[in-house]
Amino acid sequence: MDIRQLETFLRIVDTGSFAAAAQTLNATQSTVSARIRELERSLGVDLFDRSQHRARLTAKGQDLVASAREIVALASRVRHRIGDKDALTGTVRLGVVGLVAITWLPKLMSALRERYPNLAVVLDMSLTATLVDKLRNGDLDLVLVTGPVVESGLQAISLGYDDFVWMCSPALAVPARKLSPAELATWPVLGLSSQSHHYPVIERWFRDASAEYRPVISCNNVRVLAELTVSCLGVSLLPRLSYHAEIAAGKLRVIDTAPRIGPVQFVALHRHTATDPIVAAVAELALETSEFERPGNA
């Protein structure tokens, strides 16, 4: 019995099949099967009932899960804290929301290449809900998404906050005074798609003021939304920190509203059962390279 066999065993448990485990481990299915056969031979018991389509644990297999997680977690901490960083190899499947992708993702990728040169990264950019679903289903190892996300089985690390404020082009004659949601609604509103994490927040902001949220243009990309706003097509809710350069250059203007929409948190999210040192390493670097504001660092 060795660590790699236990890691493979747990990956099968978490993904639900030998084939899915092989894909996430960047190994062949025959290699995965061989590791499990060796593990079963060393223990003298069957760990999986192979008569089923999915990898169903036997009673002995279920008994092994908790102990295997403890052993693999301990080995992971030893490798991560003491081992040679060049020895950290493998593939991490990383999901990121659009705002991270267009701001400090290149900084994170550069840091990963420098610190862990033998680590491969597979990127997936999408909306928060889609990425969290993929993480939950075992299709991704780590996601950098809009928070907060509170769910049993998932562990979140705060990456900081960005202040979302209404903006417009200075060329759009929006009054330079405090505006209510009802007053803002008289202007063309550019909004994120209904699948966006922000959509219900914006909709509630208008509804609480007895105003109707009816975006004239909707999309699921913050950068596109900002470019449409710069082009004087309407007003939109954008992250102040991420667009400070455009504000300073006079391409965008912050609209003063009452009430304001509070800051938005971003988190690095992974499954509680994740024991791969790669996940811990990438999450740690994401926190280190994040350009979002953190309490006490603003």
TrEMBL record:
<keyword id="KW-0805">Transcription regulation</keyword>
<dbReference type="InterPro" id="IPR005119">
    <property type="entry name" value="LysR_subst-bd"/>
</dbReference>
<feature type="domain" description="HTH lysR-type">
    <location>
        <begin position="1"/>
        <end position="58"/>
    </location>
</feature>
<protein>
    <submittedName>
        <fullName>LysR family transcriptional regulator</fullName>
    </submittedName>
</protein>
<dbReference type="InterPro" id="IPR036388">
    <property type="entry name" value="WH-like_DNA-bd_sf"/>
</dbReference>
<dbReference type="InterPro" id="IPR036390">
    <property type="entry name" value="WH_DNA-bd_sf"/>
</dbReference>
<keyword id="KW-0804">Transcription</keyword>
<dbReference type="Pfam" id="PF03466">
    <property type="entry name" value="LysR_substrate"/>
</dbReference>
<keyword id="KW-0238">DNA-binding</keyword>
<dbReference type="Pfam" id="PF00126">
    <property type="entry name" value="HTH_1"/>
</dbReference>
<dbReference type="GO" id="GO:0003700">
    <property type="term" value="F:DNA-binding transcription factor activity"/>
</dbReference>
<comment type="similarity">
    <text>Belongs to the LysR transcriptional regulatory family.</text>
</comment>
<dbReference type="GO" id="GO:0000976">
    <property type="term" value="F:transcription cis-regulatory region binding"/>
</dbReference>
<dbReference type="InterPro" id="IPR000847">
    <property type="entry name" value="LysR_HTH_N"/>
</dbReference>
